[in-house]
């Protein structure tokens, strides 16, 4: 253990610490928080080529729930119903199954949009991690760098902020 001598240990410590003396990590980007109004502005408004008044009229004419749902699906209409409008439709005789279908299709569309946004953010995060790992690995080739963290892409403790 003494064969390196004091100078050898100082040199080894300087080389090891040299890898830590690189540029400080960039500040993580700030997370954007959306308010309710900003979220409503971001979510596209529903498109209803078959209006709620038309649905009430079909129910009053005695059309079945399956026929009304088929017409809603064929028209590719989406509805953002509020509680008062739901109550008014149910009181006017619209079957509960139709109202449930109208609510569920809009909810499913919003969830699909959110899932697509999350997938897009995950892809951007993975690309950023890959780029940072490549930069870190390139630093290994420079003199004075002893280690690189994380050792590879997908390392369990690597996170996007």
Characterize the largest beta sheet: strand count, sense, and whether it forms a barrel. Answer: none
Structural class: mainly alpha
Broad shape: rod-shaped
- So what's the oligomer here? single chain
Unreliable parts? none
How large is the share of residues in beta strands? under 5%
What does this structure look like?
- The chain has 161 residues and is an all-alpha fold.
- It contains 6 helices and no strands.
- Helix 4 (65-75) packs parallel to helix 6 (96-140).
- The radius of gyration is 30 Å and the shape is rod-shaped.
- The model has no long low-confidence stretch (mean pLDDT 77).
Provide key terms for this protein.
161 residues; rod-shaped; mainly alpha
Please outline what is shown here.
Helices cover 59% and strands 0% of the residues.
């Amino acid at each position: 253990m003494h064969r390196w001598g004091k100078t050898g240990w100082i040199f080894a410590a300087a080389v090891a610490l040299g890898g830590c003396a690189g540029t400080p990590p960039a500040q993580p980007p700030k997370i954007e928080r959306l308010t309710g109004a900003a979220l409503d502005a971001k979510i596209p408004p529903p498109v209803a080529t078959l209006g709620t008044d038309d649905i009430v009229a079909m129910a009053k004419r005695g059309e079945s729930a399956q026929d009304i749902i088929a017409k809603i699906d064929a028209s590719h209409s989406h509805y953002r119903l509020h509680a008062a409008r739901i109550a008014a439709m149910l009181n006017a005789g619209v079957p509960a199954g139709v109202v449930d279908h109208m609510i569920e299709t809009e909810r499913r569309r919003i969830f699909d949009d959110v899932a697509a946004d999350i997938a897009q953010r995950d892809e951007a995060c993975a690309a950023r991690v890959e780029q940072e790992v490549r930069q870190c690995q390139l630093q290994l080739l420079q003199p004075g760098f002893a280690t690189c963290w994380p050792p590879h892409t997908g390392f369990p403790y690597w996170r996007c902020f």
